[in-house]
Design brief:
MAPEG-like_dom_sf; elongated; transmembrane helix; mainly alpha; transmembrane; membrane
Length: about 130
């Protein structure tokens, strides 16, 4: 497996850990028979964790597809790997700023992550201009 493919797994685990950690920290208040109970998410940190989790679910398919498309179309693997690692770092920072209630920085990080995804996605079209 390539480093980029491991980053796809990392992105998946990140959005699971984001909500799982809040459920684990507040395990006495979490009722697994009612996992979407709005009362559990009344606390501000739980709301932000849920928001970060949902955003991770939203961004994951595009990231995974972009990585696989770039790899299958023969784009430079080293560049795919570097951008995938950068995306994962940006997503970790995004989650931390979401949990830390830093909306402006969070939006900037989201935009950077989206730009990285676009770069990976369009890499096959531009591969003749990229270093090998």
């Amino acid at each position: 497996m390539t480093l980029a493919e491991w980053c796809v797994l990392g992105a998946l685990l990140l959005y699971l850990v984001t909500i799982g950690s809040i459920k684990w920290i507040r395990f006495r208040g979490f009722d697994n028979s009612r996992p979407r109970d709005p009362a559990f998410y009344e606390d501000a940190i739980a709301q932000r964790a849920l928001g970060a989790h949902q955003n991770g679910i939203e961004t994951f398919p595009f990231f995974a597809f972009a990585v696989l498309l770039a790899e299958f179309r023969g784009s430079p693997q080293r560049l795919i790997d570097e951008l995938a690692v950068l995306f994962l770092i940006v997503r970790i920072a995004y989650v931390l700023t979401y949990l830390g209630n830093r909306p402006t920085l969070r939006s900037i990080l989201w935009s950077i992550g989206f730009a990285i995804n676009l770069a990976i996605f369009f890499m096959p079209m531009l591969k003749r201009f990229l270093p090998v």
